[in-house]
Amino acid sequence: MTFRAAAVQYELKDISSFSEFGHQVTHYVKNALEYGVQFVLFPEFMTTQLLSIGDESQESLPIERLPDFTEAYTALMSGLAQQYDLYIIGGTHVIQTGTGLRNTAFLFHPDGRIDTQAKLHMTPTEVQEWNMTPGDGLEVFETRYGTIAMLTCYDIEFPEIVRMARAKGADVIFCPSCTDDRHGFYRVRYCCHARAVENQVYIVTTGTVGSLRKVDFMRANYGQAALISPNDIPFPPAGIIAEGEINGDMLVVGDLNVELLEQVRQSGSVTTWRDRRTDLYPDW
């Protein structure tokens, strides 16, 4: 089965209302529709743009206020997914739970269902500056086009969690990301390639670009979207199906053939998934 995915290099810029955010999101979705896609991926922390709306004194809103936008955010994204018959991975949005703030990826289904996956590994900034708490476990999600997982940014740097996603049946890992400099960007990007090779899966990743001049820790962004494959003969030699221009405001679009994954798992030049040594290290 083949489907088409678009990854949005989302430009963060200061706004004055939720409607501005809605217009920008809708623009990217309508742009993706022009390419006949079935999935649209937005980046991590895209909704921090809402903090730039500010308060009565024109100061940016604190991170604790971001959950106030959850109802409007989910209504917007779910409405677009249903209206245009798309799966939308709405980047991440910060929600309030009983244990604190969680950086959470959302999957909006065309039939109106909404699935979530909290980020499992917290960066120092998320813990020390924003007092966020990690998620409790990993889920995979069934779609018309197969099984997917959502692992956010830092999560992709931990081989074990991606191995678990593949063991649960995921063929495609959607990785929304947000990095502020080249060091962080390349950590995530190189790990995406490693995870694709190790598990013979596709990785679709993207990051924020632009700048929020009012919002601390979102003042700089360094991002590039890519659709990444295993490195074997049926795929591009560098494992890059498509990639964007670094820090450009744009979409990156490509086709993912899930059947090819199973073929290379069984009879590829290497069969890394089949050849893992579960006698030496545990499987999940």
Quick structural gist:
With 284 residues, this protein is an alpha/beta fold. The chain has 6 helices and 14 strands. It is globular and about 65 Å long.
Structure description:
- The protein is of the alpha/beta class and 284 residues long.
- The chain is built from six helices and 14 strands.
- A six-stranded mixed sheet has the order 6-5-4-3-1-14. Strands 7-8-9-10-12-13 form a six-stranded mixed sheet, with helices on one face. A two-stranded parallel ribbon has the order 2-11.
- A hairpin with a 2-residue loop joins strand 7 and strand 8.
- Helix 4 runs parallel beside helix 5.
- It is globular and about 65 Å long.
- The relative contact order is 0.16.
Give me some keywords for this one.
six-stranded mixed beta sheet; 284 residues; 6 helices
Write the layout of secondary structure elements.
Elements: E1 2-9, E2 11-12, H1 18-33, E3 39-41, H2 70-84, E4 87-97, E5 100-108, E6 114-118, H3 124-128, E7 141-143, E8 146-150, H4 159-167, E9 172-177, H5 182-199, E10 202-207, E11 209-210, E12 226-228, E13 240-243, E14 250-257, H6 258-267
Helix pairs in contact: 1-2, 4-5
